[in-house]
Every structure is written in structure tokens, then in C-alpha cells.
Batch of 3 targets.
Target 1
Amino acid sequence: MAVVDTASAGGSQLQQQQQAAKSAEPADEHEESAPVAAATAAAASSAVDDVDSHSGREPCCGTKGVRHLSDSGVTRLPGRYVLPAADRPGAGLCGRVKLPVVDLARLREPSGRAAALVTLDAACRGYGFFQVVNHGVERRVAGAMLDVARRFFELPAAERERYASPDVRAAVRHGTSFNQARDAVLFWRDFLKLACQPLGDVAPSWPDAPADLREAASEYATASNGLFMELMAAALEALGVHAGGGGLLGELAAGHSQIMMANCYPPCPQPELTLGLPPHSDYGLLTLLLQDQDVEGLQVMHGGRWLAVDPVPGSLIVNVGDQFEIYSNGQYRSVLHRVLVNSTRSRFSVASFHCLPAERMIGPAAELVDERNPRRYMDTSFGTFLAHLSAGKHSTFLQSRKLINDKNSHNCH
């Protein structure tokens, strides 16, 4: 999870367009179905498509994606992937960070729980990101998920294209870029989206190749969902919010949305000219990221700089989403992050997005609103989020829901 400095974090035209529709492909996901979607403004996309149609080129690069391009041996980046100079990876301030580490073994012990909650709370307030260790997701399960994702993207293009779809609401969807139909500039990433709830109903529709994909992905989805519930319980406790019974945790236990996104970032001939994913934040409550530990790419915006994340062996990366920032009344932060690519090695990751059902309205928790801490956000729903994307506004979604705009707000959306 480099920058730009704070001014350019939301300053260039492309970033404004993409951040206005922010929230990784699950906007592509909930609409398209859920949390990872970020779309570029329709006007910019239409302009590019007009140029393509008048030049005789296909308006889109097809569904074969960047793995196909990389395997074909291209030595120059196709023009549709080249970012404006101000939006390229090196156009800003960069650094490195070791994100706060939350040890679930301590969280599970009465003697260590209070200290672990302090660490979790500080991470969600200060970074919006943390790494979790001793999380209970078996190494075998996590390794099998990454391995089967890697083998899916190694399948022949024709096999993968069986799951290509323009329907962003499809329970299974293979595609490329961020939102291929609307991106004015494409991104160096292929993905496989898997809706995970209810698991027994949707898993039979998942790809049947590789042969062990359904089993491996089902096991990982179950494990990551259990971890999400445990982390939500801890975060709500740290916030001082009633969680059980008729509270948010009970509601989540009764049913919520989970989308898994397997990502492939193959070697890129000119990585300095493009990104794997543009700056975005996630729409939901929490996102859990399983990634290659030896191929870096995730950068997080913090203090006006893009910071490359130094992974802790065996950890999962967790970040706060827009829904949780709203529910926490701004105490927890949903922050921008992006993905860089390289010229020599493929990078694979699996993001598990967790959010409330699409029809559910969400606003600040009653316990977090009083005279000293007035309500900072309007109630919102996924429908509101989609309407914001469709309008092509230049403000980000969270900015559009704010009732109070803090002068010194630390949210660089």
C-alpha cells in the first residue's frame, strides 16, 4: 500500500478524474459489483474512444489484457497505457514505510488485548493501513490461493476469456485495467473477480480451470471472512461502539458483501510510464490483501508522499474503506493507494473486499457523535456511490458526503 506531493495528489487532471470515481474495482465490483472499482470520467474516455474510432483503431484493446501483451514480447508500451507525465510513478515525492503491525495472538490473549487494541486503533487513525500477523489464515491456505491465481493467469487467453464480461455485476468476471470500458488511459493489470457470498451459491459458477481453483478459493474466502469479522469486532471495540446483538457486527454476521479480486501485474516494457492501479481508495469497510512477499508494488499515500510498503513475512495487509471512515465519523481513515509495476517479474495479489449490503444506508455511529464531535458525514448507500460515479464529479466520493470539511483534514483523497 511516488507521490506526488500533497498538491499533486489530487491535482492533475487524470488523478482528479480517476479519484472522483475512486474506490478500486469494486465499484467496478458492486456496480460492476463492488469495492475495487475506480472509473475515469466518461468525457475523457469518450474523447479517447472518438480518437480511436476516427483513426481506425479498435476503441478498446480487447479482452486479452496485459498478460497477453507481456507474453507476446512487446518492447514498447502501447500508447493507451502511457500516463501523462504528472501522473507517472516518479512524478513526486516517494519513500518507504513499515506499516504498523497488529499481532492477533496478543489480541486473543486477555493480558495483551488492551495493548493490541491501542496499536490497531492508532494504525486506523494514522495510516488507514496496517499489517496483521498471527492472523490464523494457514500458510497452506494462503499459499494455495496465490498459486491458483497465478496458474489461472497462465492459462491460454481463450480459456480466460470465457469469463470476460461487460456486466460489472457478474459474480465472476475476468478483465483488464481498472475499468476497461471507461478508462481514458489503461492500467497494466489483469484481474479475476469472484463474488463470495453466499459462498455455496456462487462458488459453482467460478472458473473450473485450474481444476483446484474452486476449492482453494473457497477455503481462502472462508478464512479471510473469519479474519474480517475478528478485525471488525476489535476495531469497533477500540472505537467504543456497541458491536453485538443488533449492532453492526451482528448485522455483518447475518450477511454482508465479500468480493475477492485476484490481480496479475506482468512484466511491463516501460514501467516508468504507467501504473498497475491508479490512486484510489476502497468503498467498503475493510480490505484484506494477500500478496507476493518478494515482488513489491503497493504504495500508500501518507503525509503527502507515496510510500512503498515493506512487507512483514507471513502478514496480510489490511486497509480501512470509505464505509468505515463514514461509520467512524472520520476517526478512521480511508486513504489513497496505488500499484507500481516492474520490467522483470510478475506480481500477483488477492484482495478480499468486505462491505455492507448494497441497499444498506450507513452513517456515523451514534456513539461517535456528540456536541464536541458533530456528525461529519451524510448517510449514504452504495446507490449513492454509483450515482456519484455516474455524475463524473471532480470531488471524491467521501468529499461529496462530508457535512464538515476540516481545514486541516488529513485525508488526502
Target 2
Amino acid sequence: MDAPIGNKENQAETEEDRLSALPDDILLNILERLYLHNVMQTSTISRRWRHLPLLLSRLVLHVDEFLQCSETRTMGKVMASYCEATRKLLASTSSSVKDLRLIFYLADPCHLHSIGEAVGNAVQSRNIEFLEFNIWPEIRGTRCTEEHVMLFGQRFMSFLDACPNTFGLLTSITLRKLQFGEADMQTILNTCDNLQALSLHSCMLSHLHSVLKIDAPGSQLVALEFNRCHFSQVELVCLPRLARLFYDTWLSMKSPLLFGYVPWLHNIRVACALLSWQMPFTLSGCLPNTSSLTTLYLDFHGEMIWLQPEDPKKLVPAFSNLKVVHLYDIFADCDLKWTLLFLEAAPSLHSFYVNISRHICGRYRLSCAENAEKTNVLWEPSDFKHYNLNLLDIEGFQKEEKLTSYIKLVMERAVFLRNIHLHYMERCKLCDSINKQAASLSMSKFQNNEGENNLIRKQITNGSSSSSVEIIIE
């Protein structure tokens, strides 16, 4: 039987009282996970909540909240509302804010200048530890032409020139759909002298076949990201504090990266679905001349392997301190022996992750271009021994002779291997929607019971001297 209405109201009041009884630090932790308009609404709940928005240590001003609330949804009105709210909030917020993030459109210059001025005035009087501009183009998708990208690049550089003091306080910038002039990147880094993280998405240079060179010996930059950028190549001439680099989907014929002086670079992630006019390349030709690298992620997006196998000795200088390797989305029919070159080249490696893509949905294929034809990678490892590998982790596992032989091969080379984790492929809704019957049949292969898993363990360890290896199958 349903509770009486009066009892329900009393229960709701009791729950609210319990929440209000929590200390400020816990309530603030909850509020910092909400959208701003929800945060402001909580201040009207009761006197207990009224002061809390002024005590937030993390403040995110997202333009999409104003886009959703706008009746007409014109860009001018949305940005006008955003600017007004930004000015008022930053003027009234106490000095408790340590993390300030603004997400807005690269729209009318007067709105951009208003944001820059409001942020500059507010931050100078506070001890902000993290300040981010995350900037979106006002035109997206196929409607955004090369002329728009050129205009957005000019607009951003004008914004930078109009508010140099504000940009000098930023610790993170994310930019999208901009065309840079030859000297623009140097100007950005010189102006943003406190910048620690820079992310570029779908950006390009004014000359399509130009190399983006970054030479910033005084830069504080720690993290650098490129995503689908139209650079012929990125040459990191000098970034003395760079620690993390991510490059996803390059659109050039060359290897995407060249390294100069990057002594602290320890984490590199490179990902791409190779296109028909792109060629595989060797890692030794583009790796940094440093031994600081400890973690390497290479993602092939289920398409052609863009890495060309080579003599592991050429990789030893860069891989001497490499501890963790992730090889993502290797297409299912590809031979895996070539992956052992990482074991041979990295004597300190302790964790080796291999992810096999069995998707039929082509989730990483670009609609505007043709992917390279998948061809097998043939490479025979030498008879080496590895003494530090502790973990072999394989996702997309399936009971098949090729994989069993590969695991045995790794066990023969890695004499102290103690842990093997095998993960069956998770169901994919996109694959199912393409061909439900075929997907259902293929997925059923992965749903083994424990008896079948024990049989797989015996097949793997049969004839192996590594009797102490623990094999987890899930």
C-alpha cells in the first residue's frame, strides 16, 4: 500500500535535513560535480545552502548551459548572456576558487574581450591554481569551411593580442578549428608563459605542407595534445618540461612527430587509422633522443598497422627505461609476433598490454577518406630472453591457435612472467546493429564457462617451464 501523502512529505523533509546536516566540505564536493545553474538553485533551498556557492573551490562556466536555456538560441544572445553571467559570478565569488574553467565559443570579438577582461580582473586578485580556456568554433561540422577556419585563427590571435595579461595567467588552453600563421604558435607560447597544457583539435597552418615547429626553451608546458590536425609534421625542437604527449589521427604522409630537446618526456600516446595514401614508418626515426620514456601507447584503431617493424637494437636507447607498453586495437587477422620487438628493445618492461579489435562496425573509419588496406605484419623475433616482464594482458581474447601460440612465445621469452590476464571482447551495440545474427554468433564464442577456461589454461601451459604463471580469464 502506498504511504499517505503527508508521510511522503515528512520523509522528503527528513532526507533533506539529513543532507543539510553534512559538513560544508562534503556538500561542496557534491556541488562541484553539478552544472552551474543547478548549483545556483541549491542556494534557494534554505539558509543552510545559501552561502555554499560562494565557497566553491572549482568553478566551471560552460556556454552550453546558456544555449539550453535560451529561447531563440542565437549565438549573439547566448554569448551575451554568458559574458554577463561570467562578469557577475567572478565579481561576486570569494577567493576560495582555486580551479576556474571557462568553455565558450570563439564568437564576436566584443564578447571575447569581455570574457578576457572579466577573467583577468578576477584572477589577479585571487590565488587561482588552475585556469583554463576551452574554446569552440561558432560553426561546426561540414558547415565549417577553410575560410571559416582562417577567420577563426585570425579572431583568436586578435583575442590573444587584446588580452595578453589574461592569457599569461592561463594554465590550460583547448583550441579547435583554427588556422595558424607561421609565427602564431611562437606568439601563443610567448604570451601564455604560465601554460602547462595545450590541446589542438582539427587545426592547420596557413601553408598546408608546412611543419609545425615548437621551440620554447622557457615554456612551462607539461602536456601537449594534437587531434586530427592538418600539419605536415610536428617538430618539438625544444620543450624542456614536456612530460606527456598525445597525437590522435594525423592527416599527413610523413611520420607525425619529430623530437628535439624533450628531456622529461615520459608518456607518449599515438593513435591513427591509417589512410590509403599514408605509409607505415619506423619508430626509431621519430623517437626522442632521451631515456626518460616510461609509458608508451600505440593505437591502430582496428585498421592497418602504421608501425613498420625494425631491428630492436635501434630502439634500445629510447626504450631503456620503458616500463609499460599498450598496443591498442590491432586488427584480428594480424599476426602478433612483431609485438615482441618491444620486449627485446625494452629490458625494463614490466607490463605489456595487447588489445585485439574484433569490431565489424568500422568505428574509427573517416567518412571523408579511404582507409589503407589491411595487410599482415610479418616479423620473426630473435631468440632473446626478458627478465623483468611481470604482466601480459590481452583484451579481445578468443580461443584460437594463433593466440595460444603467441602467449606461449611470450612465456618462452619472458622467463619471470608471473601474471597473464585474458579478457573476452565485450559486446558492441554498433556491431550488433550491423549484423545481429553474425554478431550474436561471433560473440557467443567468447562466453566460455570455467571448465572451458581451465582447458585453455592447460593448453597455454602445456610444455612450458613457467609453472608459477597465474592465468586469469574473464
Target 3
Amino acid sequence: MDWQGQKLAEQLMQIMLVAFAVVAFTVGYILGSFQLMLLIYAAGVFLTTLVTVPNWPFFNRHHLKWLDPSEAEKHPKPQPPVSKKKPNKQHHK
């Protein structure tokens, strides 16, 4: 799954869960059934999982171009600056 695919999966998950929550609450409220509300929401969570968790092809539309290892060696990773401060000595009383 590429970066845009991860973003799409996250957006789909949020939209689907909110939509199922609204539908479940509305149906449960109108029919006065807490059990039906929970069943609708549980079905929504299950369907959301089926849509967003597997690595479907539409999540892989923007392939990443990786550097060749020989090219990566030519450009070493930047190192963090080394601090020249002396370590603090803690005095125990």
C-alpha cells in the first residue's frame, strides 16, 4: 500500500464508520431497538474492515520509486549534530 493509499484507507474508514454510526443510531432510535442499533453498527465495522484492511489494488495506484542501493551509498544519510556540552553532574544530598 502506497502513501496515498494509506491516506485513502484512513479517509474511507472514518467516513464509513461515521455513516454507519449515524444510520445505526437513527434506525435504533426510530424503532426503539438498542439491539438493532448495535447489529447495524457491528455490520458497518465489519464492512469497513473488509474495505480498508486488505491491500486492494486501488490502494496501490501511486508506486514509490526507490533508490538503487549503489545510488543510495553515494548520498549518505545526514548525521545529527554532536553536542559539545559537558554532561550535567547531579549531586546527591
